[in-house]
Amino acid sequence: MQLLQRFLTIVAIFAICVGNIGVADDWPMYGRDASHNAVSPERNPPTNWEVGLDGRKPHNILWTAPLGSLSFGDPVVANGQIWIGTNSVRSPGYDAANDASVLAGFNVRDGSSLFNYVSPRLPQSRIHDWPTASLACSPLIEGDLMWFTTNRCETVCLDLLPLKQGQPQPREVWKVDMMAEFGVYPIGSPMAFLHTCSIASFQDRIYVNTGNGFDYLQQKVPAPQAPSLICFDKHTGQSMWQDNSPGSNIFEGQWSSPLVVEVAGRPQLVMAQGDGWLRSFDPINGNLIWKFDVNPKTAKWQYNHGTRHQCLATPVFYQQHIYIATGQNGADGEGPGRLVCIDPSKSGDISSELAFDRMGKPLPDSRIQIADLSLGHRVKPNPNSGLEWECVSEDVNGDGEILFEEEFHLTYSNVVIKDNLLLVADFSGAVHCMDAQSGKRHWDYDAFAFIFSSPLIVGDVAYVADEDGDIAIFRLAADQGQPIVELSIGSGCFTSPIFSNGVLYLATRDTLYAIGESLSPNSDITLEIPIAETASSNRDRILRSVFVPTPQDIVDKMLELARVQSQEVVYDLGSGDGRVIITAAKQYGCYAVGYELDPRLVALSRSKATQEEVANLVTIEQADLFTANLGKAGVIALYLLPDQLEKLLPQLERLSPGARIVSHYFELLGLVADETLTIRSQEDGDEHKLLLYTVPLTKTASVSPTTK
């Protein structure tokens, strides 16, 4: 009997331990827990895998699951399920009628599909909700309930218990349309390159960044009185309180997520808002506790090349301090950023600076610029400042120059901190390690690719994923400035890696990977790590576009505006599914050339050209558009991001006199357009801006800071 009792006791203890491990090692929200500090307590994560590229045998891949064509919502894991934001586009083609954002659910055991929450596009999608955009948040899961925000400016609560019970879909508990109920005017991300709000909770409440924003067509914030932040009852969806502090000062949109922390025994809700201020509220009643301006007072908002910015990252809490860095929409280009460490125990205005007019009166907040020294404004240090330290640029090696990796650039990335070592990746591709208490730089690394995601730390290993699909793996140490290995996952990563219950989850644009090793995830065995591969110094650093199709009636108008002649050659740089060059060949009988990197779109374009019987007039090059020989071009069609257009400009300036350039949506900064049209498409109901330029190109005297 004693032996049986001892056996049952051991079994019970084992069951409790296993149960606790399963709960503790889930990843049920953005950043794993309420601190948003993406550190897993588990050990021995995988550091060697092969996804099966170029015919190689897959290694350490537990399973894969297909996603849409773009995935921008970080995954979460809870109760044997994994959820990730993506879209409905699987093939290289595009079906506007079925385009939607999707929250996809899978079984963590084998990657089998559980359920897809499909959220159709909003009308006027290029203002509120871009075509092919991913559902771009991480859901919050507590018990059997899941909350998330959608591309339609909705907050949704689902009961997942029916899925556990074998039913085909969860139960909708409540859904709130924030446009209809609160008058919110959300701004979508151009080319779908931004995350949206991942919900935070406290007691019986949840907190949502609404995404209220600035309409570049109207050149104003259409709904300044609409809430930027809403507190909901998590069980009913009833609004408990709202805040619209940014008002009409929102730069573009609002894309950060809330943080709930306890500071010196007092709960705080911390939110980075779209006017460049970080604010703390009482989570129960919404009263302001403190506010911090993340910009210097003389900084100036200017589309594409300004110095005044908001935060796309989410604040992170570590040892009673808050960390966050400035950023901007990747479509607006790169620039210098600012990482700050803040003491949140103070109250009132805790900015590092205060601004006054020439009479000594405090200056009000302003969208473009708070303090203009040319007008006699003055800036003084704030005696109530909560700034502990900041990171901008530093001559770390003492050579008298600021190298690329010594600059802190604008970022999408949250910091991650363990053992007082802070790791952060900036958008331009620099990875920085510094002391979390002092801000002292330990090392910097150049990934030679854009980085949209946040780092992950598991044990003493750190992961950084980039847009090229390379995963740099670092040993977390103050003297470890190079990755111990860099592994490829085959396609660009826009989501952050997570680690749950012994499995590393990585998502590319279109595939979710579950990666693990044969070792027990909590084993004490030391892994043998391969030596790092050397990053190629000639990799480009130009943001790759997502394929966002131009409606056919807008294609027709682009070619009409360019006045295409049959003897000319039309080029489309970033030709997607080939609709521009095929239309040019069919309607004008001219020769047309497309440049496209995606092999699937190249194959689709060539097939369509054959179907339309213009294959003899159409050539599609699978090549980088920046290598294009444009010597024969009479007309060039563009639908590219400002950063790409800026790099392309030298090639455009060398075109033959009389050549025309027609750009969809984005202007060539610093140049005067011959004609500008804004027309509404009958196909998608959106307004589309078209700009025509003629070589030789005419430069503007200056660029207005209020553009966009």
Notes on the protein architecture:
By secondary structure, this protein is mostly beta strands. Helix content is 11%, strand content 31%. It has 8 helices and 43 strands. The strands form 10 sheets. Strands 39-38-37-40-41-43-42 form a 7-stranded mixed β-sheet. Helix 5 crosses helix 6 (579-588). It is globular, with a radius of gyration of 26 Å. The termini are far apart. Residues 1-23, 518-540 and 703-708 have low confidence and may be disordered.
Question: What attributes does this structure have?
Answer:
8 helices, seven-stranded mixed sheet, five-stranded mixed sheet, 11% helix, mainly beta, disordered N terminus, 708 residues
